[in-house]
Amino acid sequence: MLDEVSLDAVTRARRLRRGFGWGDVLVVAATIIWGVNVVVVKLALTDSGPFTYSAIRYVLGALALCGLARWLEGPLVRPPVTDAWLIAAAATAGVLVNQASFAGALALTNADNIAMISGTTPLLVVGWLVWRNREHFEAKVWGGLGLGLVGLVLVVGAAGGTWSSWVVVPVALANPLSWAVYLLMLPRLLGRYRPLTLAAWVTVVGAVMLVPFGAVEALNRHPHVTGPWLGLLAYSALAAVTLTTWLYLPGVRRLGPARTTVYSYLQPFLTVVAAGLMIGEPILPLQLLGGVIMLVGVAMGRPRPHPGPVPLGEEPTIVAGVSAENLAEWVETQHCAAPSGA
Q1: What is the rounded distance in angstroms from the CA atom of residue 195 to the CA atom of residue 37?
Q2: Which of 24, 33, 66, 252 has the greatest number of CB atoms lying within 10 Å of its CB?
Q3: From the DSSP assignment, how many helices (H) and strands (E) are in the chain?
Q4: How many CA atoms lie within 13 A of 301 on its CB side?
Q5: Is the per-residue pLDDT at 143 higher than 60?
């Protein structure tokens, strides 16, 4: 009986550690939507300022998330003061600074250069976890991260972007830094709140922070509202804010920050493909080669899942991965320690 349980548990544990599970599916789906959204935003900004557009789409996304969270997880409960500060910090990093740095850098250089700098996010997250002794990674993981970075350089560098000023470097660097900080803060919050509830609070606070910037910009540049622009806004709000947050946070809970962030390597290539399909931008051979290299790098560089804590009362299926892995490790220990005749 022990052998049967051991075999089943170990098999599940190995699948969790190296396989492609539901957490990976959720994060990849969110990454695809974000990749397309870069092209959508590029089109939408011809008729509005970047801060105005970001503020509107986050307000709409926050309202949709609040309704969704109330429907699926019950009424939103006001967080205690200690958690409120943490949620505000997450909103500042993941929404305000992330969107402001993207908009500011976009005014100084093109999206290709921003994508190049944003590609450092996996290295920032993994480097922080190693420095803080929270996780240790095999040489294969570091090799995959390096390979993914090479692919990123090919995808973005083939477009031949230019830098208008050295000022763009620190501005653009704030984008991956803010996202890395946000991603590293999520596991602590996800241990206290359900994903949709947390997503609603973070997005609401982030939207409130963006509104003053958007309002000031709108005074000087009024949005030119058209049917196509409203369609682009609907995608950016409901898909790229509401749906991606709904997908991404449970993915982070299942995978942990390190494994989650590796998939961000795919976004620039997905954006190139989306631009080719949607607005006819050419896809260069070097970009295709870079995309293949990034896929190999992601496959190599994915660390084992590092699931975070789960609030009391959460559905047991949410922590099935954690339970299976812990069971497998326990059974492996018992099996190895048992006498050969047991």
Answers
A1: 22
A2: 252
A3: 16, 0
A4: 27
A5: yes
* Biggest CA-to-CA distance, the chain: 82
CA 6 to chain centre: 35
Distance CA 108, CA 100 (A): 13
Q: What angle do CA 96, 99, 100 make, to 5 degrees?
A: 75
Confidence (pTM): 0.78
Can you tell me whether residue 73 is helix, strand or coil? Answer: helix
Binning pLDDT at 50, 70 and 90, where does residue 234 land?
A: very high
* Interval 10-21: pLDDT, tens: 444 445 455 678
How many angstroms separate the CA atoms of 55 and 100, rounded? 10
The letter for the amino acid at 4 is E
Rounded to a whole number of angstroms, the distance between the first and last alpha carbons of the chain is 10
Q: Is 133 exposed, middle or buried (0-12, 13-18, 19+ CB in 10 A)?
A: exposed
Angle (nearest 5°) at CA 241 between 19 and 43: 110
